[in-house]
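Continuing the batch. This is chain 6 of the set; chains 1 through 5 are on the previous pages. Same settings as before, nothing changed between runs. Recording input and output for traceability.
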Amino acid sequence: MKKIEEVLKDWEPVIGLEVHCELTKLETKMFCGCKLEFGAAPNTHTCPVCLGLPGALPVPNKAAIESIVLAGLATNCDIEKHTMFYRKGYMYPDMAKNFQTTQGPKAFCMRGHLDLDVDEKNINERYGVAELAPGETFENVTRTEDGYTAQVGITRIHMEEDAGKMIHVGGAEGRIEGATHSLVDYNRAGTPLIELVTEPDLRSPEEARLFMEKLRQIFLALNISDCSMEEGSIRADGNISLRRRGTTQLGTKTELKNINSFKSLHDGLLYEICRQAEVLEEGGVIYQETRHWDASKKRTIVMRTKETADDYRMFPDPDLAPYDLSDDFIERVRAKLPELPDQKVKRFQETWGLSAYDARHLVAHRVTANFFEACMATADAKLAKPLANLIINDLAAMANDGFDLAASPLTPARAVELVGLLASDAISSKQGKQVLAAVLDEDKDPAAIVEEKGMKQVSDTGALEAVIDQVLADNPDKVAAYKGGKTGLLGFFVGQCMKATRGQGNPKVINQMLAQKLNG
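Output for chain 6:
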């Protein structure tokens, strides 16, 4: 297959997402009083309502309605005051009722949007943006100094109930293919679930990944879900089609189902773009179908032909009266809105003078944002930038490998102390990394480690001058070469001085003194 860069020259991807989020912070299911508990023994949290037994009547969970209104307000949606629940035909055994209670054409939340900030390094996945000047706008994109901003429309956020869990026994990787039999756990059936549907405004796998990440940040800030991708409480379906550049008619879409990691969402869409381009260029046909992303084989696999709206046989649920939300109810929910990620980014910029890039990457994870704020509670404002660098460049990268910052020996006070040592030139940047590693390994304060290991930099010009004079005296040929125009030899002299001081000389001061002596 062609690489994505080649495909994008001729084809435009059109991507929309359907993001499903379980409201795991609630205590009970959507229409009954059964307890919500991940990992409970199979089929121990069920009742006649969530099993759909004859005569059982559902009662809506008011706290779940509050949660979806919070989600809508946080994503710039209009809140519909008059809505109703529908029955949607469901033919799979993980929903005992044989229908799913969901919403129809009008959901609780309609017509919203989110703005995505895409960094410069990922700009080439959006064709043509690199040619725009900062501030210039094309379609839903505005070029910025460090990338671009894309506004993504949200069609709706509707409320529904989740299905149960199927366990396929005997198949590879727990899949139905090759299984000898299947088991059903109905504990999850009836869990309150909100589904957010975007407009087809996304044009790259990176934009889709960023949208999913940002939505997760918002839902975590709202405290409506634990948003655990490993446990499946937030997952996405990606709809993707291609059209020739310069055309407006949409192509036939495929759907990547139940993606449960940011990387899988990005990589699955990337593969599907290249696969569809290859099929179309060879004269083939793209079929509307649901596909599975196989991360181990790095390819998508057909699951089933995609159902149409008629297959769902939707009609208003006769057991649930229409829902009317009052202005007072909506305003009470609005008053519960916390500081949202975009607001926190703006505050970090205005309060501590951080760049938009630094602020965004700090806020990307609650643990790094909280850690930074804890540091700045005692730190001088001038340390904001170096603290941000420490968290973004070192700690966040370690967190990707399983490092738990919140439980580590690196407390906010120790981070401030470490950055202070670097800012005062007491230690070099290389030594700073060594001190950080020692703090994590030995659970000691940075200053104590520097003292014990004799790492404090020598910045005294008197002490360094003797070292520099000796290095220059020992290398007269190189001094002559430098003065003859080979100025790159400055690095050699610095290295010799650092060696003579056993790595404790301040390289910044040594650089300055050498330049003065060699150019004097």
